[in-house]
Amino acid sequence: MSRATRVVLTGAAGQVGLDLLDTLRGLEVPGASRAYWADARPVADGEFEVLGLTRHDVDMTSPELLRHAIEMTRPDVIVNLAAYTAVDRAESDVATCRAVNDIAVGVLSEAAEAVDSHLITLSTDYVFDGTKGAAYVEDDSTGPLNVYGATKLAGERRCSPLDTIVRTSWVMGVRGQNVLRAIARRAASGERVRFVADQTGTVTTAADLAHALVALVRARPGGTWHVANAGATTWFDVAAHAGACLGRAQDFAEPIDTAELSPVPAAQRPARSDLSTERFTGAGYAAPPDWHDAVARLLAARDASW
Q1: How many Å apart are CA 86 and CA 291, to the nearest integer?
Q2: Catalytic positions
Q3: For the chain, which terminal residue's Cβ has fewer other Cβ atoms within 10 angstroms, N or C?
Q4: Domain ranges of the chain
């Protein structure tokens, strides 16, 4: 019998981390599609030996502690899910954002090479400026508009060509704080919502992303890949669809322009940053399902904490 693949996850307490940790352990994840596996292979019993590291286990801003964690665990694969994701706060907390999204990725890349491990690290659509006018592919020119996107791009550039970079966007899961949870709470309270209709992107549910990442943990392809649920959308469309799923009338969600937001966000967002998954599907993987189905599954799986 072959040895289990040893996987270390950083950011294991985040919404993607929780879902990937359970997925690799063969557990059912709330909101996941049982039919979707990027390589058509569900996780087998004993296939993976998984260690999840949270901020309580290792300080991502400490290169020494991060190197030590990898040296001690000596994994086959490192999946870096730790990130500074408070996009607006990052504008005034540049040093911490850079430490986590940029410097730590370089440390992990070097540590992975030292112990003959493979690094998979998550990045973002915010590495783009949104002016292309069409879905972004992996080789498109980058041009981040905010500190968060700039630090994620800097982290990408610290990676070795052998490392795997996974860009994703608009992540939401059953576990963790996210926009969909806020929408559901407003729907349950009888309130209405206002969301921007002039920012286009791609939704990614944590459960579907976890199922896609399993294939990359197995294959360790290297290079940059875009992974997101199928179909471009706006935040207004997400809110309207969620409202319909929760039985609210058509007037639940009102479309607005970014310029109408109050207070004005500290960080600028790209107007259109949807991600093309053609490279992923061209390599023989199945793209995550359509975002309408994915959002409906999350809402159906929500628990009392929502």
Answers
A1: 23
A2: 148
A3: N
A4: 5-176+204-229+269-290
